[in-house]
């Protein structure tokens, strides 16, 4: 299989809220599994169509202001979760994010990676 990712992915432990672009109601609250400079993978209770635009809000530990971003669903596949409940893994390509929020997000991701590397 050919690797098509441009950036390394790092495991993270954050939750995000998401909704479909141009809607008001929250569609779901999901754990984010990993993240990179250009995208992330999260778990959802249902599949999302490729190309769907999502507005997302991530709460970073230790931060009082959430990170807001817009992303496009790059892929979604059904996975078997630990508790035998069906979930979907969803890959997001970042579409729009404020430069300040992107810097905060990357600082968190790289900081978590460094802490994990030091503890091993």
Strand order of the largest sheet: 1-2-3-6-5-4
Oligomer: single chain
User: What general outline do the C-alpha atoms trace?
Assistant: globular
Proportion of residues in extended strands: over 45%
Overview features:
Thrombin, subunit H; globular; 120 residues; alpha+beta; 6 strands; 1 helix; single chain
What does this structure look like?
By secondary structure, the chain is α+β, with helices and mostly antiparallel strands. It has a single domain, classed as Beta Barrel (Thrombin, subunit H), CATH 2.40.10.220. The protein contains 1 helix and 6 strands; from the N terminus they run E-E-E-E-E-E-H. Strands 1-2-3-6-5-4 form a 6-stranded antiparallel barrel. A hairpin with a 7-residue loop joins strand 1 and strand 2. It is globular.
